[in-house]
Amino acid sequence: MQTFQTYTPLGLYRRRRKEHFNEQLKNLKLVVDWTVWVYLLVPGLLYLSGWYVSLWSKPLPSWTTGLTLPALTGLIDIVMLTGGIIIFVEEADVLFLKSRSLWMRTLMRQGIYRACLQHLGKMIAITALTAPLWSRVYDMSFIQIALIAIWFGAVASFQVIVLHMTKVRYTGWRRWLRMVPLAIVMGIITIGATFWMHGQIWTLLAGIVAAILLLIMVGRMRLEMKGTFEGDVREDLRERLKLTALILSRSITKPKAPRTRTVIFRKPRKLLRHRSISNRTAEIAFKAFFRNTSTMKLYLQLGGLSIAAVALPPFPVNVIVCGLLIIMLSVLFYRSWDVFATSDYVQLVSYDAEALNQAATTMVRMLFVPIGILMGYSMGAAWLGWLEGILTAAAAVAFGLFVLSITGWIRYIRSA
What residues form the membrane-spanning segments (predicted)? Predict the structure, then answer.
C-alpha cells in the first residue's frame, strides 16, 4: 500500500522537489566553507541589524527624502521579475506524463503554488526591510505596510506566471520581443496602482482582491495551455540549474577566447608627464591591471560596494566604514602590485629597490584616487548634501593618500 501511494502525481512532485533541494544543498557544500561564512555572516548580520534599527530610531539619510514612492516601487518591481516557476518536468516524462493530463496538471498546479508562496515570502521580506521608508517617509501604518507586502506578493506571482507562459511558448528573439514590452507594461501598471492605493486601507484591500482574481485567472490559463511540454522541460532545466551555474561561476574559471586587442588602453598613450623609470614602471603596472579582465571586474565591484557601504549607513558609522575600507583597499592594491612585481616581465629587467618602491606608491595612488573621490563624495552627498560632498571627497582622498604612504613605508622597511 505504501508503494502505491508514492506513485501518485502529488507523490511524484514531492519526491522531485526533495531531490532538487538536496541537490542544491550538496552543490553549496562543495564550494562553500561554512567556517569562513560564519566569520563573515555574524559580523555582517550584527552590522545590518544595527543599521536597520538606526533607520527606525535615528534621522533618515538625506537620500531617502528624495526617493519617491514610484521610484521605490519600480526598484521592487525589478526584484519581482527575478523569479521563476519550476514544475519538475523531465525529458523522459514524454513517455508517460505527456499522455496523462491529470499528472501534468498536478505538477503544474503544485509548481504554481510553490512559486506563489516563494514570491509572497520574498515580497514580505523586502517590504520588511524597506518598512522604515514606508512608515517614516510615506506615513503608512503597520497595517498598510502588511497589506502592501501581500499586494506585492500577489503582483509578483501574477507577473511570474505571465512571463512563464511566454517563456514556454517562444524561444530566442521572439521570446524577448514579447517579454520586454510585457514586463514594462506590467511594471508601469504596478507602479501606478501602488501609488494610487497606498494611502487607504480599503483601496489596498480592493487591489489585493483584484490581483488575486487575476492570479487565479492566469493560473487557470496556464493549466489549460496545450503543446508546451518541450518548453516546460527547457524552462525547468534553466531554473533548476540557475543556482548551480551561479555557484560554479564563482568557483571555476570559464575558459575565454583568445583576445588580440585589449578593451582599454589599446594605444600606447602616456599617462604620466614625467618619464622617469619609476613612473614608466607604474604606468605599465596600471595598464596591466586594467587590461586583465578579472582584476578590472574586481576593481569595479569593489568600487561599487565601497560607495554603497559609505552612502547608506548613518553618521558616524559611515565615517568609520570609510576609514576601514580605505585601509582594506590600500592592502589590496599593494597586493596587486606584488603580483606585477613578481611577474616574469619585471624579473627580466634589473630595477633599483628605490625605483620599484616609488613605482609601487605611484601605481597604488593611481588605483585609489578614483575610488577615493567617489567614496568621499557619496558619503558627503548622502550625509550633508551635494555641495558638501566635495569637501568630504577631498578629505577621503587626503586620508587615503596618508594611509598609502604609511603602508608603503612599512613595506619598504620590511623589505630593506
Answer: 36-55, 67-90, 111-135, 141-164, 176-195, 201-219, 296-312, 318-337, 366-384, 390-410
Identify which of 297, 301, 300, 311 has the alpha carbon closest to the alpha carbon of residue 375: 311
Write the single-letter amino acid at 226. K
At 3, list the grid cell. 508503494
Instruction: Please answer whether residues 115 and 43 qualify as being in contact, where contact means their C-beta atoms are separated by less than 8 angstroms.
Output: no
Given a cut of 60, whether residue 140 has pLDDT beyond it is: yes
> Cis omega (within 30 of 0) on the bond before 313?
no
To the nearest 10 degrees (0 to 180), the angle between helices 69-80 and 101-129 is: 150
Write the CA distances from 372 to 83, 179, 364, integer angstroms: 36, 40, 12
Radius of gyration of the chain (CA): 27
In the predicted model, is pLDDT for residue 4 greater than 50?
A: no
- CA–CA distance, 274 with 408 (Å, rounded to integer): 21
CA 261 to chain CA mean position, Å: 30
Is the CB of residue 281 less than 8 Å from the CB of residue 359?
A: yes
> Which among 206, 238, 222 is positioned nearest to 163, based on CA atoms?
222
Cβ(295)–Cβ(289) below 8 Å: yes
Dihedral over Cα of 364, 370, 373, 379: its sign: negative
Amino acid identity at 332 = L
Q: Which residue has the cell 511570474?
A: 160
Tell me the pLDDT tens digit for each residue of 260-306.
Answer: 455 566 666 677 777 777 777 778 778 877 777 778 888 888 888 88
pTM reported for the whole predicted model? 0.60
Element (H, E) at 123: helix 101-129
Cα distances (Å, whole numbers) of residue 22 to 181, 238, 322: 37, 17, 41
Dihedral (C-alpha) 343, 347, 350, 353: value to the nearest 10 degrees? 50
